[in-house]
Amino acid sequence: MRVVVTGATGGIGRALVAHYLDRGDEVIAVSTQKHQHIADTINGNCHWLWQCPPEDYVGRLSPILQSRLPDRVFHCSGILHANGKMPEKALKQFSAAQLQDNMQANCIAAVSLLQALEPFLNRYSQCIIAVLSAKVGSIEDNYLGGWHSYRMSKAALNMAIKTVSIEWRRRFPQVVLAAVHPGTTESKLSQPFQHNVPTQQLASATVTAARLATLAERLTNQDSGALLHWDGSKIPF
Ligand SMILES: NC(=O)c1ccc[n+]([C@@H]2O[C@H](COP(=O)([O-])OP(=O)(O)OC[C@H]3O[C@@H](n4cnc5c(N)ncnc54)[C@H](OP(=O)(O)O)[C@@H]3O)[C@@H](O)[C@H]2O)c1
């Protein structure tokens, strides 16, 4: 199997890279970082694309996709806190800059990846694409408020996935494109908030990667456009 993982040095991304390499699959690991020693610690058939921001996805991924379409794509790139900015607790903390950063990292980056994939898809292409979103991006499920920019950017991401899936269903009927909530997982992203999470609800990145890989095996084109929990249940938009 050939697998593309973005955000490949992140908690969930790195665990997915390791999961598929352990199985003997070929992995294309995409990262915004400069080359890291991580490349030496992960063995197997891994092609790292270092320093690859979303605006480079088309140029850097195209030569690879041309040779063969991946069977699985996991878009694991995203932010909750960055540049010293924690998610908002109240409206007075909201800033346009924080929303723009979240929109870029959590929504626009994913759309750039879909644009990079599209020229290589046809009506016979079989490819499962899981874009990591978040349950807190559900408008209906929002009972707590807060985290304004993150929630807005993930809601926008969910809409992007739904919209593109409608377009692709006609043209690429065997491609599955879904937004997936990975569940609360130990990572840099969740680290500042883990004390609020009961231990049994906090998964290791390794467990989450295995869950996401299992989910990918079960997805069908009926799931395209949906926002799914890692166990495959639907989360309302
Ligand atoms: N962990 C959770 O509990 C949880 C819960 C719900 C949803 N999610 C979603 O799951 C996805 C993966 O999260 P994670 O927990 O693996 O987080 P993470 O450890 O922080 O990894 C996210 C990765 O995204 C990439 N990235 C791209 N642009 C970035 C930027 N401007 N600032 C920082 N990182 C950037 C980085 O990878 P590279 O440097 O390799 O590009 C980073 O390591 C995210 O979309 C997140 O919203 C996570």
From TrEMBL:
Source superkingdom: Bacteria
The scientific name of the source species is: Neiella litorisoli
Protein name, per record: SDR family NAD(P)-dependent oxidoreductase
The organism's lineage? Bacteria, Pseudomonadati, Pseudomonadota, Gammaproteobacteria, Alteromonadales
Q: Which Pfam families match?
A: adh_short
Which InterPro entries does the entry link to? Fungal_SecMetab_SDRs, NAD(P)-bd_dom_sf, SDR_fam
Q: Name one GO cellular component term.
A: cytoplasm
Q: Which GO terms describe its molecular function?
A: oxidoreductase activity
